[in-house]
Structures are given as C-alpha cells and as structure tokens.
Design goal:
Blueprint lengths: L4 E5 L1 E12 L5 E2 L6 E2 L4 E6 L3 E6 H5 L17 E2 L4 E6 L4 E4 L4 E7 L2 E6 L3 E5 L4 E6 L4 E12 L2 E2 L3 E8 L20 E7 L2 H9 L4 E7 L4 H6 L4 E7 L6 H9 L4 E5 L12 E5 L12 E3 L5 E4 L8 E6 L5 E2 L5 E2 L1 E6 L3 E6 L3 E4 L1
Parallel strand pairs: 1-29, 16-17, 17-18, 18-19
Antiparallel strand pairs: 1-22, 2-14, 3-5, 4-13, 5-12, 6-11, 7-10, 8-9, 10-11, 13-14, 14-21, 15-19, 16-20, 20-21, 23-24, 23-29, 24-27, 25-26, 27-28
Length: about 350
C-alpha cells in the first residue's frame, strides 16, 4: 500500500525559514545577494499594471464630433503629465479636457480618446529581517531567516511587522474592554473574535495585526476591509486556537513578528502565517511541507464537525469508511484531545509540526 501523505501546518518553535517575495510584474531588484535586510527595507521596485479610461471630448468640449479634431493638442503615443491640456479651449466657455493622471494617449476615434493611466510605483518590502539568498534580478527575491513559525487557515491578504502582544486565552472571546492604549501599534493574538465592535476598537488603536484561533462568519466582509493583516489559525466559527500555537505565541509575546495574511493555495502550499525571527542557537533545517501519516502523528482537524481539534493518529484503516452523510472516504482513527477517538476523513486532516 502506498504511503499516505498530508499537508503540514507548521507550529515550529525554531526552524530555518525561506520565503519568496515577488513583484506583481517585472521590475528591478535593488537588494544584493547575501545582503542582510530589515523588515522595512525595500528589496525590489516596480509598478502596478496601467489602467485605461475613455475621455469623451465631444461632451467635455461641448462641440460637434466633426469639430473635435481641431481642438486636439496631442496625438496617439504622446505622454502627458497629470492635468496637462489634451484638448481645447473651445467655445465661449473656453472648455478644456485635461489628462486625469500621468500616462499616454492610446488612440482617438469618433470624438473619444482612450487614455492609459500609468501604474502606481510600488516598493516590495522584505517583510521580516533576514538574508537575501536568491534573486532573478527583475521580480523575485528569496529571503532566509531562523525563527518560530505558526501557520493558519485563512488570511485577509495583508502583511505587517510589529511587536506581538497577547489578549486573553486560547478559547476566550476578545472583548473591546480588553483593548487599551498599551496595545496601540501592536500585533495582537488571542482566541475567538465574534464582535464587530472589537474590530472597530482595534482600528481606533491602530493595531498592526491580529492572529486568532477563529472568527465568526458574519465578520468576513469586515475582516477583508481591515487595513491591518488578520490570520485565523483554525478557521471560521467559534474554535479555540490550538494549544501548540497559543503556547508558542504567548511564549514569544514582546518580540517582533511578521504576520502574512496571504491567501493559501494548493499549488505553492503557501499559507497565511506568522514568523517570529529568533537567533539560532543550534543547527536548524527547512521544515517539511508534506509528511507521511503514521500512528502517533500529531494532526489537526480542519473541517467540521471537529474543526480545530488536535490529536494523534491511532490507526490508519485500509478500507474506506462509510459516513452517515453518504461520504465514503479513506480515514484515520484519531485520539482527539478532550473529545476521544473519532474517525476522520484524511482530507480533513493536516499535520502539526
């Protein structure tokens, strides 16, 4: 029988961590190979893709379509600065049309002009202190550091680097009254988020990040709008943060940490995560991304009805299990902490390392 493998959710006290940082398009890598960088250092520069707008010169100038061309001051291909005159003045009112932003004229037809707005310049930051160990020179940079790593299930797509502070226990609900001025600018960690008012209070305190076990599903839209990164280690619902992650985060409270709320994907195996840079007191290795399941492997359930529960595999039956829902699936018998032995589909498990 072939080995059964499962993806890994890392809860690692100390390991070698390598991460690729990438511009959305070609640009210039400004960091040098083997250079040590800080979290805030810009390591590559580029610009976002341009956008396009139609400018109606007939309406803007207030003249017939057949007369527009004689008021046009530029032609296709010309580059303009923001506010620069494109056409006019025309008529008694001396009406004009100006460039909405830095860009260029693409084409002009039937009294309408297609204008390309130049993409905004962007600076790609390192995100965490480390060393540059690889680059393609134009778009991607690979960083390496040693430290603790906690990976989650969901993130809102933002990144930040700030001091880690704890608010409440692994299974406690975070309340607005727990948030005071001493937490301003901190990266907060706690158990369960279930109130919109708590998020509003965090915004007022200019909190710079949040990692919790879970959040109720009614907060999804608000979490996506937050200007600071959010990571859920267990997913949506009212699920306590797993004990291993909570212990690691609280032990390192007071240290600076990088929170990356990137959305996970099945192809790169990237996940939302929190990295706490630490000095390496011993030789460290790169963590595995998939491992073979065996009796004794520590796992976490990632889907209901036991989402967030942690335990150890007791047995891996050869035959698929027929569940009351009608699902027929290869499964594992797992001794779940505080619950007991349950049969869990392999697809609902990941490994905690």
């Amino acid at each position: 029988m072939p080995d059964i493998v499962a993806p890994v959710s890392h809860v690692t006290p100390l390991g070698l961590i390598r991460r690729e940082r990438k511009l959305p398009g070609p640009g210039t890598v400004v960091a040098r190979l083997n250079e040590k960088v800080l979290a805030s250092d810009v390591i590559a520069e580029g610009e976002l893709a341009p956008s396009h707008v139609f400018l109606d010169l007939v309406r803007g100038l207030g003249v017939p379509e057949k007369d527009v061309a004689r008021y046009l001051l530029h032609q296709a291909g010309d580059r303009l600065e923001a506010g620069e005159l494109i056409a006019g003045p025309a008529g008694v009112g001396r009406r004009t049309v100006r460039a909405p932003a830095v860009g260029r004229i693409v084409t002009f037809q039937r009294g309408r002009l297609l204008y390309e707005v130049r993409g905004k310049p962007i600076g790609l930051r390192a995100g965490f202190p480390g060393m540059i160990i690889g680059t393609d020179g134009t778009r991607s940079v690979t960083l390496e550091t040693t430290g603790a790593l906690v990976q989650g299930i969901w993130g809102n797509g933002r990144q930040e680097f700030a001091m880690l502070r704890t608010v409440g226990g692994a299974g406690e609900r975070i309340r607005s009254e727990q948030l005071d001025i001493n937490l301003r600018g901190a990266l907060l960690t706690g158990g369960i988020l279930d109130q919109a008012s708590t998020l509003q209070q965090m915004t007022q305190l200019t909190v710079r990040g949040l990692v919790v076990g879970s959040a109720t599903s009614d907060l999804v839209a608000q979490l996506m709008r937050m200007q600071f990164p959010v990571v859920l280690t267990e997913g949506f619902g009212e699920i306590p943060m797993n004990n291993a992650a909570y212990a690691l985060l609280t032990t390192n409270a007071g240290r600076e940490a990088a929170i990356d709320g990137r959305m996970g994907d099945n192809f790169s195996q990237q996940r939302p995560e929190l990295i706490i840079p630490l000095p390496a007191g011993r030789k460290t290795d790169l963590p595995e991304e998939v491992v073979t399941l065996t009796p004794g492997t520590r796992v976490r359930v990632v889907r209901p009805p036991h989402a967030g529960a942690v335990g150890s595999i007791r047995e891996l039956p050869a035959k698929a299990v027929d569940y009351p829902s009608g699902l027929l699936a290869r499964s594992a018998l797992v001794e779940l902490e505080g619950i007991g032995t349950r049969s869990v589909p392999l697809a609902n498990l990941d490994v905690l390392l």
